[in-house]
Amino acid sequence: MKTNYKVGDLIYDANIYDAMNTDLADLQFYQRWLPAKKDTRILELCCGTGRLTIPIAKAGYHITGVDFTASMLEKAQAKAAAEGLEIDFIEADIRNLDLPAQFDLIFIPFNSIHHLYQNEDLSKAFQCVKNHLKAGGLFLLDCFNPNLEVIVEGEKAQKEIAKYTTDDGRKVLIQQAMKYESSTQINRIEWHYFINDEFDSIQNLDMRMYFPQELVAHLRWNGFEVMHKFGDFQEEPFGDGSAKQIFVCQRAADTESKKPNQSS
């Protein structure tokens, strides 16, 4: 059984990453769930280059960003400085995070849990969230809803998935190939990069698929109550055709279930 799962270095090239990921539909969702009081503390895990962190900070919230990749955090710091913002960006593994603070809201956005490849990895990350979450605080996350038809089609041939130009002037084209390992639920994705019209490299983007009932069980086993589960960022109910799994959770001992920035 293969265990050498990884994400290629070029995928974490900050300029290539930022130029590809410009959609902010998820930002609007997370903003709707921010606490009404701006003196609360927010923690974003797997914050990348600050795509969501920075606009939340600009709205007046005290937010801390955590990521495992130094180059992404360097770009995040530079972007924050350009906006005149002071944000704590911390390089750490979310499986063993230990900060001297608790937070009112913690979120793991942008499908990041798919890079937690083993059940133990996911449990460690969820326990770290629980340890850093205040009583009554919210835990939000989003990920894909596995679509086996898409996976089967993706194994048949390479497909162009992106074409764009970075801020530093590189023309990027990405073709995707994939092979699903049913025994481990790992989708072995390869991104074939062509830069400035020439083949550059093949980069792995391996992703653990988490199926709906399985993920709900993991959350409950690790002490969270699922308050809401949505199928998209417009908060449509989760169903068979949903492309996403989007969770709003609290620690199991907490019972308050009202959206925090809505009046009674």
Whole-Å distance between the termini?
53 Å
CATH structural class of the largest domain: Alpha Beta
Q: What is the molecular shape?
A: globular
Q: How much of the sequence is in beta strands? A: 25-35%
Given helix and strand content, the structural type is alpha/beta
Low-confidence stretches: 255-259
Count of separate DSSP helical elements: 7
Q: Your description of this structure?
A:
This protein is an alpha/beta fold and 264 residues long. It folds into 2 domains: 9-145 and 211-251, Vaccinia Virus protein VP39 (Rossmann fold), CATH 3.40.50; 148-207. Helices cover 25% and strands 32% of the residues. It contains 7 helices and 12 strands. The chain has helices spanning 14-20, 25-32, 53-58, 70-82, 119-132, 148-154, 212-221; strands at residues 41-45, 62-67, 88-91, 103-108, 133-144, 159-165, 171-181, 186-195, 198-204, 207-208, 224-230, 244-251. The strands form 2 sheets. A 7-stranded mixed beta sheet has the order 3-2-1-4-5-12-11, sandwiched between helices. Strands 6, 7, 8, 9 and 10 form a 5-stranded antiparallel beta sheet that branches. Helix 5 links the parallel strand 4 and strand 5 (133-144). The model is unreliable at 255-259 (pLDDT under 50).
